[in-house]
Write a structure and sequence with these properties.
Blueprint (H helix, E strand, L loop, with lengths): L17 H4 L12 H8 L20 H9 L3 H8 L6 H7 L21 H14 L15 E5 L3 H11 L4 E5 L8 H4 L8 H13 L3 E3 L10 H7 L2 E4 L5 E2 L12 E3 H8 L19 E5 L3 H12 L4 E5 L11 H9 L3 E3 L2 E9 L2 E15 L5 E5 L5 E4 L2 E4 L3 E2 L3 H5 L25 E3 L2 H4 L4 H21 L3
Parallel strand pairs: 1-2, 1-4, 2-3, 4-16, 6-14, 7-8, 7-14, 8-9
Antiparallel strand pairs: 5-15, 10-11, 11-12, 11-13
Helix pairs in contact: 2-3, 2-6, 3-4, 4-6, 5-6, 7-16, 11-12
Length: about 475
């Protein structure tokens, strides 16, 4: 048999030109055509020991679905993915594949890896465009009831897995729309809200009940849920923003990324004048931070009419925690980067922010994160003028559930403590996963933890053993 001819680079995916997309909130990449998807899937080497499967936090059978895509059997590929991933249209768009499944792809040793994320997105979108999803066979009901708190990626994943095991699942969402960070945190141009709603609808089609505007810790406590349900899963995310605690931080025009992006996304300020949501539309916007949230805020600012959007980050470009694709998109759109820069004070007049005072940094030895530590250069103070500033340096879980559940063990920053092998908390019958136990992390990591929790919850419901 002739050796397989290897195509060294990924099949390109068309995108909106930067000068066009910066003026709208439409999704940036267009996605693959069927022909492009089949061509890209054929690049897979179908390794006997596929490292991409354990490289995926939800263990999708990647070679299996790629083989089906290569053969043009897209429906079967969708069904195979959904055996382990209930949200492929989302993970195909926002998952950091380059550091997970694609990062360990055998092709990446010499060539570009297979575009696994793009193909996952293609399969999910093809299924939706072809008449919607096909439901898997569901077992007879167990009559066991599980309350899932939060409808973000962790909550939706554990709900779907438990429903497929025959359990009655109710998801409680504090906001007026389901999706958690998928709805309030990630902009439309990166994750269209119609896609989020589509994936939520799929989970509901499995028999999952959704209750919105229900704040656990206020509308009902965890103990009250346990009186009605056999188990509870906490997946409320990390919605408490971190601040810098610098002079002038309380000036008007200084926002957390949580508030700024929630107004733009969940409250639909991007659809003005259809939605007249108040939002700061600065002409010169500074975003402090270097993660995906910072990129999202800076790119949103440009689309809201800012002439300049500036990222201020204390390390170098190499240490930016944001996905490379998001950094490149931001650069293409004109976002400016002030790297090796640390804020030290906000300055303003008449109660409004006008300037950010900063110090220049040099990189020292690596710190606990493995990245080189920024060291301030004494006397290098300088100021950057701006009329809106957004702080995007991280977040912690809301304290509401912990405060209303005194026997729930928490750690630094209100992180709920959970056994990583089972996601069991200190409270019998209560499990947790996602950002509530990690702080702000990735969508796919939350989903991976939710799958571990679903298996442990199922075992607990069957045996009663804690």
């Amino acid at each position: 048999m002739a050796a397989k001819t290897i195509v060294p680079t990924k099949t390109p995916m068309a995108e909106q030109p930067p000068e066009v997309r910066v003026c709208n909130f439409n999704e940036v990449p267009y996605g693959y055509t069927a022909e492009q998807a089949m061509a890209e899937a054929k690049r897979c080497l179908l390794c006997p020991k596929a490292l991409c499967i354990p490289g995926c936090p939800v263990n999708v059978d990647i070679p299996g679905f790629l083989r089906l895509v290569a053969d043009g059997d897209f429906g079967a590929a969708a069904a195979l993915i959904k055996q382990t991933n209930a949200l492929p249209a989302i993970t195909g768009r926002v998952c950091p594949q380059e550091s997970q499944c694609e990062g360990v792809c055998s092709l990446s040793r010499r060539y570009q890896s297979v575009a696994i994320g793009r193909l996952e997105r293609f399969v999910a979108d093809w299924e939706a465009a072809s008449g919607g999803f096909n439901l898997p066979p569901l077992p007879d009901p167990t009559h066991k009831k599980v309350a899932v708190v939060g409808s973000g990626p962790a909550g939706l994943t554990v709900a779907a897995d438990l429903a497929r095991l025959g359990h009655h699942v109710t998801v409680f969402e504090a906001l007026h729309e389901a999706g958690g960070v998928l709805s309030y945190g990630i902009p439309e141009f990166r994750l269209p809200k119609s896609i989020v709603q589509r994936e939520v609808d799929y989970v509901r089609s499995l028999g999952v009940r959704l209750r919105i505007d229900f704040v656990v810790g206020s509308s009902a406590t965890v103990d009250e849920l346990l009186a009605e349900y056999d188990a509870v899963f906490l997946g409320t995310g990390a919605g408490l923003p971190w601040f810098l605690n610098l002079p002038g931080e309380n000036l008007g025009g200084v926002y957390s990324s949580n508030e700024y992006l929630t107004r733009a996304n969940l409250m639909k300020a991007y659809r003005y004048p259809e939605y007249d949501t108040p939002i700061a539309r600065g002409k010169r916007v500074i975003v402090i931070g270097g993660g995906n949230t910072a990129m999202d805020a800076a790119r949103t600012a440009l689309r809201l009419g800012a002439k300049d959007a500036i990222i201020v980050y204390r390390r170098s470009r190499q240490e930016l925690p944001a996905r490379l694709e998001e950094v490149e998109h931001a650069e293409q759109e004109g976002v400016q980067f002030h790297l090796l820069t640390t804020p030290v004070a906000f300055h303003g007049a008449d109660g409004r922010v006008l300037e950010l005072e900063c110090l220049r940094n040099e990189l020292g030895e690596p710190d606990a994160s493995g990245r080189r530590r920024p060291v301030a250069v004494e006397g290098s103070n300088f100021r950057i003028p701006a009329d809106v500033m957004v702080i995007a340096i991280g977040q912690s879980p809301s304290p509401l559930i912990a405060k209303s559940t005194p026997d729930l063990a928490t750690g630094k920053g209100g992180i709920v403590q959970a056994d990583p092998d089972t996601m069991k908390t200190s409270k019998k019958g209560v499990f947790a996963g996602g950002d509530i136990i990690t702080g702000g992390a990735t969508v796919i990591l939350a989903m991976g933890q939710a799958k571990i929790a679903a298996r442990a919850i199922d075992e607990y419901l069957e045996t009663g053993a804690w």
